[in-house]
Amino acid sequence: MNWHLLPLSEISQLLNTTPSGIDAITASERLCEHGKNQIEDKKKKTIVQMLICQLSDFMILILIAAAIVSGIIGDLTDTLIILAIIFLNALVGFIQEYQAEKAMEALKKMATNYARILREGKTMDIPTYNLVPGDVVVLEAGNVIPADIRFFETHQVKVDESALTGESNNAEKNSDDLPKGNYALGDQVNMGYKGTSITHGRALAYVVATGMRTELGHIAKMLQTEETTTPLQKRLADFGKRLSVVILIICTIIFFIGWLRGESVMTMLITSISLAVAAIPEALPALVTIALAFGAKKLAKNNALIRKLPAVETLGSVTYICSDKTGTLTLNKMTVQEIFETSDTKYTAVFEEKNRLLHAMALNNDVSKGENGNWLGDSTEVALVQYANDKNLNRAELEDTLPRIAELPFDSKRKCMTTIHQIQNTTGEIMVITKGAVDVLLHKLNADQNLHIPEFECKVNEMAEKGYRVLGYAMKTLSSLPENLDSNEIETGLTLIGFVGMIDPPREEARQAVLQCKEAGIIPVMITGDHKLTAKAIAEKLGIISSKEDLVLTGIELSVLTQNEFINIVEKVRVYARVNPEQKLRIITALQSKNHFVAMTGDGVNDAPALKNADIGIAMGINGTEVSKEASHMILLDDNFATIIVAVQHGRKIFDNILKFIKYIMTGNSGEIWAIFLAPLFGLPIPLMAIHILWINLVTDGLPGLTLASEPAEANIMKRQPRNSTESIFSKGMTLHILWVGFLMGIVTIGMQAYAIHVANSHWQTMTFTVLCFSQLGHVMAIRSERDSTFKIGFLSNKPMVGALLITVTLQLMIIYVPFCNEIFKTQPLTMYELLLTLAVSSTVFWAVEIEKWIKNIKK
Ligand code: ATP
Fold first, then answer.
1. Same domain membership, residue 426 and residue 326
2. Dihedrals φ, ψ of 639, to 5°?
3. In a domain, 679, yes or no
4. Which residues are catalytic?
5. Does the beta carbon of 407 sit less than 6 angstroms from any atom of ligand 1?
6. Which of 101, 100, 90, 107 shows the shortest CA–CA distance to 51?
7. Residue identifier of the C-alpha nearest atom 24 of ligand 1
8. Are residues 122 and 143 in the same domain?
9. Which of 502, 528, 562 is the last residue of a domain?
């Protein structure tokens, strides 16, 4: 339908709606008819596809082929067992992938956007997926347009349509009918399209198309992007590829050594391939995703909603947190504390009463009354209207006598807002009311008042030093409304009528969080559009500024510095005041050039570039614009600075636990390789059969390893410096640990084998198999903490691990003692002495790693 060519009256007829919106019953009927206003996701993998994917790894396919060949020419039971274990392995992998996907879906659901609409004249916020054609949407700067719409009222509206048209300049919009003709999407100036965003102004519009019927829906397939991989996953995948080559070479050598020692070709083929399957960590990147997805789920419970999975991983590397003041470090609960009226009486007559300032406060704002009588809108404006209202100045009544005919909406770059009102009973005279940051407003005054600027500044500083946000009000009258609403022309020659000082108290928990932040080697920085003195007073209260060396820089001071000069001082600046959102990008670049890892918060429409470019862009869940949320990596559901610190702590813990998991898996694999590689060199037979290797890979490696994710945070987690993001994960002794502990595991295993064979014990293979299995369990217990001994952190402090260890031990005992399992796994029941001996020998690894930690602590 060519909605852009139809006159508004026809559109409202076609959609059976009015400028006050439709009613609830019609809306629910239309929702059934048109479906949800959602872009359908790309086709998801079916359960069968997910399972096949698990089985389609190259080495697994070779193992399946080898097992089948061996079954045909030899033992069929072995083949069936190998196939069963491979299938079980795939099943476990599938269950994990499925759960991770569910966790991510749940996160996506939490990030639901809301649209402000009118239904039967009442303003309400509804989830955007419930919008239907005919709904009236109320839009303002920062909103993402929720459906395809036709504007019927616009105030200085500009829309960023780059997502749809590729055009980077903002398109101006209006509600005029267009003459007949062919219009490209970008030229349909009375229309707005789903997924584009309002960068300026306010508007009312009819929803004309929803969901897959929108322009975005038509091109949805083109827009569906691949999921992002995290830096750690990329590194692991690369590392895995190189490691695979090494392991394949080792397995080939093992194959030949075994064969030369007289083992059958088929046995050696299956043993060496099983070893390759067990030792190549091909599942590690997927397991990291699972750990991150579950980590993200936990973070959401702590009010930090992850939008991009890599953020979970990178949180632990943050060295700078640059945070907005209003709402994040403060409560965003403004209350007017003090007002000051200038003695200029020029415009008193317009209001017919003396209190001009109160009139201006009631008139110049965009708040609206919500369903239950509360004020909806920006907290600064709500405070102002509330104050005027408490002084008996009713906004609605005032607007009857001084109706608003035009406006210049607030933007954080201009730092002011203007409303223009028709003065009744005059010859078309109009009144301009401007409110905004006083230092900005002082440059817009008429010549008479310019003389009084020092006095005004003195009063403003007095208020700002108390930590107040100070807003000024100024006005003028004009004989008629100018055709072109240019802020430079309208917001000039004004008469200042007074100031208002508001307090927005610091959040109590933010003070504590700032302290924690500093202890954790992270520097908190406050960025605000507010006055330098207001910002400084609040920063001191919060502990962000704690010494004389800590600098406060204003946007103007920043703008005169060259990038090099700025880089030289950037590490000293703790507060940026009166900055424009655009300057945030400069701050990020300067810090990043000093190798810092920057988390940056943002809530406004202009914050999107900074959020995208920060290492972690953090948007506000309550007061953030949708544009900022879309650009962010993480959303704070409670807008609270303290939540960032909690998220960093969780991020560090999740990363620690992923490293522990990698350490565990790789050391276990290294142990298996050492054992099988070294045995023939010592003149021993191959210690384990293929099914033993696969069993260890499935049970011992899998279950207890996964429970490392539940390991509580290390005691010093927020007392140590942030992790260097460029540092390899295999540094810090990780490689050494994997090699030496693996070697020890191998030696202990073949030591047991050699001894048992030496004393002619016919159970030698069962004992060797059990030693390798239990050694790994000892290892997992010992690596639960990087530095603290397991005796200190307590054996029972990770409950899921206790459960996993019990299950693994029970399964191993079943393999040893249940006759049916004996047949399958070719094991024999051990005597009590043999079992205790294997237990004692296996504990060597546990003690060795405990000693390693003890030595590390002494060296500290
Ligand atoms: P933050 O501290 O999170 O940066 P902020 O509210 O200080 O938020 P902006 O919203 O950019 O930052 O506001 C900048 C300045 O503009 C404020 O200090 C205030 O002086 C002025 N201002 C804020 N809201 C309005 C408004 N609704 N109308 C007019 N002026 C405003």
1. no
2. 55, 20
3. yes
4. 324
5. no
6. 90
7. 380
8. yes
9. 502
DSSP state of 742: H
**Which residue puts its alpha carbon closest to atom 11 of ligand 1?**
412
pLDDT tens for each residue of 728-786: 777 668 889 999 999 999 999 999 999 999 987 888 999 999 999 999 999 999 999 98
76 lies in some domain: yes
Number of other residues whose CB lies within 10 A of the CB of residue 108: 11
Do 560 and 529 have their domain in common? Answer: yes
Task: Judge if the beta carbon of residue 436 lies within 6 A of ligand 1.
Answer: yes
Q: Name the domain count of the chain.
A: 5
624 lines ligand 1 (CB under 6 A): no
pLDDT in tens, 245-276: 888 899 899 999 888 888 888 888 888 888 88
Residue 226 pLDDT: 44
Give tens-digit pLDDT for 601-639.
998 878 888 998 999 999 998 888 888 888 899 999 999
532 within ligand 1 shell (Cβ under 6 A): no
Contact in structure between 144 and 630 (CB atoms under 8 Å) = yes
* Residues 262 and 146 reside in one and the same domain: no
Closest CA to 568 of 577, 578, 576, 558: 558
* Residue partners of 443: CB distance under 8 A and separation at least 6: none
Specify the CATH number for the domain of residue 483: 3.40.1110.10
Give the Å distance between the CA of 364 and the centre of ligand 1. Answer: 15
For residue 101, with 0-12 CB atoms within 10 Å meaning exposed, 13-18 middle and 19 or more buried, which class applies?
Answer: middle
Confidence of residue 225 (pLDDT cuts 50, 70, 90): very low
Structure tokens at 84: 């069963």
Q: In this structure, are residues 720 and 676 in contact, taking their beta carbons and an 8 Å threshold?
A: no
Look at residues 669, 671, 691 and name the one whose alpha carbon lies nearest to residue 88.
Answer: 691
Same domain as 280, residue 190: no
Decide if pLDDT at 304 tops 90.
yes
Which residues are paired to 737 by β-bridges? none
- Looking at per-residue pLDDT, the higher value among 184 and 799 belongs to 799
Over the chain, what is the mean pLDDT?
Answer: 88
296 and 440 share one domain: no
Q: In angstroms, rounded to a whole number, what is the distance separating the alpha carbons of residues 289 and 234?
A: 11
Question: Which numbered atom of ligand 1 lies nearest the CA of 580?
Answer: 11
Question: What DSSP character marks residue 504?
Answer: -
The phi and psi torsions of 487 (rounded to 5 degrees) equal -60, -35
Q: Indicate which CATH number applies to the domain containing 131.
A: 2.70.150.10
Nearest to 527 by CA among 618, 595, 438, 612: 618
By the 8 A CB rule, do 125 and 114 touch? yes
Ligand 1 pocket residue status of 417, Cβ below 6 Å: yes
Please report, rounded to a whole number, the percentage of residues in the chain having pLDDT higher than 90. 52
Q: Is residue 35 part of a domain?
A: no
Domain boundary among 619, 639, 659: 639
Q: In this structure, are 129 and 201 located in the same domain?
A: yes
The CATH number assigned to the domain holding 813 equals 1.20.1110.10
Using the predicted structure, report yes or no on whether residue 378 has a pLDDT greater than 80: yes
38, burial (CB in 10 Å: exposed 0-12, middle 13-18, buried 19+): middle
- Measured in Å, residue 506 CA sits from the centre of ligand 1 at 16
Q: Same domain, yes or no, for 295 and 322?
A: no
Pocket test for ligand 1, best of 381, 432, 471 (most atoms within 8 A of CB): 471
**630 touches ligand 1 (CB under 6 Å):** no
| Pairwise pLDDT comparison (859 vs 489), residue with the higher score | 489
418, 201 contact by CB (below 8 A): no
For 810-842, how does the pLDDT look when each residue is reduced to its tens digit (9 = 90+)?
999 999 999 999 988 899 999 999 999 999 999
> Which structural domain range is residue 630 located in?
306-332+507-639
Nearest CA to ligand 1 atom 10: 412
**Cα separation, 820 vs 826, whole angstroms:** 10
Does residue 225 form part of some domain? no
Model pTM above 0.85: no
